[in-house]
Amino acid sequence: MPIVKKVGPAAVPADATELSVPMRDGVRLAADLYLAAAGRPGAVVLVRLPYDKDGVYCFMPKISRYLLARGYHVVVQDVRGKYRSEGATEFAVHEVDDGHDTIQWITEQPWCDGDVVMWGDSYYGHTAIAAAIGGHPALRAISPRLTGSQLSTVLEYGDGSRDVEQTSRKMYFASHYVDAGRYEWEPDWSRRPLRAAFEDFFTEIGERSVNFDGEFADRSPFVPRPLEALLASPPVPALYTIGWFDNCAVWSWHDVRALARHPTWSEHLYLRLEAIDHENYRLGDAPVDPWNDHAAAPEALERLLPRYLDPALDFFDAVLGRRGDLADHPRVRYEVCHGGWRTSDRWPPAESSELTLHLAADPAPNLAVRAPVREASLRWTHDPGDLVPAAGANPFAALFDRSDLGPVGQREDVLRFLGPALDERLDLIGTVTLQLSLRAPAAAHVHARLLDVEPGGAAYLIAKGQVRLPEEPGPGVAVLDLLEVAYRLLPGHRLALDLMSSEFPDYLAEAPAGTDPWAAVPGGPSPRELTVGGGRPACLRIGRWQPDRLRDPRPSAHRPLRSRP
Fold it and tell me: In terms of pTM, does the model score above 0.85?
């Protein structure tokens, strides 16, 4: 049985006033109020989170004091069913209405001047987006970080293919969304079927998660409002922060691509693209030493706060007319990994790479500027009993250790395509897509990693993408979305591309079509064949080009995150 620790709410800080905020159905949500400027009417920053408004993980008391110093009142609220708030513990179900009702209550208080803005990471960034869907007129701006409207769902692409499920959703439901507290534990990822490891946990605590169990129903009720609901809502100025190494970036880009095409939302959209992961560790600090670990060192946390909060506060100041002019605020501010900060009026920017590299087989798998004339086949064999390991120990903290992926390319179940050593630096900027001509079983998984290979052979992740192929046989052309990139390759470095069929335990292992991968046991090895050259589509593109599938704003999943018979 797993070792389990249950964590409840921390003490309310002495400088906070705890409030009880009524919702439309009579449920009351706990919130902390921090008042600036002797309580005179002013703008309010609202944060709604499921991680304990007073706990050390999200350090909201420290954040609130920083916001106070900038002249904002602050309300930090436990979402429904979490910690001190009443109601059922249900993921994503109530955030639109509860956000609206909380904003309405705030505007009725004597310390609010009628202006509310929302900020937050991950789920508490998602609640800001949900509040925008609610459309309360007092919500003047949002600044969601490392999140999206469809957070944790499996995106479907309309051609029968879909993203590969991240195991973190069900792990989240078995840790943060069991009851009002949270459970700290680690599954035995070697258990098969995989669901058995989670059943051991529920047996150990003597309780179940309705959110976890809902994943195996015909249709899970614990999914966000669709992206179309955001697009249909009254637009508000929105500053999305996206991390180049964030495992949740797929949901951020899903929103941003649609919002940027929308006739009214596009005028209210701003982007900040940073070389950070989901836990806000920086590429420049990787691997992170104790001095720079803000989760452990108080000095590191103090150094984090300005770069963490100032972009949103400057944005809010401009929107509210407190300081600066929103017209002067750059539409896009982006960090080039190893290359500094830039601004642009759009993404991808005008200086995008417009680079096409072809997958070639002769004399060994390589990336070529020109398409091979002769057709060739390359193979790898997926072995469910020996899965390719994930890129790091913690998918949410990819930069904490920033693993060397060089040895992975030596595995027999990985195809590594290696480019030539660079004579001069090369900036990769824009959308990254991969087209493959592939023969593989129905519902097979394809994972791709774009790598920076150093002269000594060490290889580090630049971008990645994955796809679950359709259950029905198709034309054999797979398109992988590796999202977006702004990365500088240095002289002597090489660009490489890895292809494989697993990345475990971060992503669910594939199972035969029509079966539940959480209940499946490993089968035997199965081959995959890639055709390159001879006019067959096998190429990597970086720049402004996007296939039609990436321009479709509709593919969000609202079904259980498992294979359906």
Answer: yes
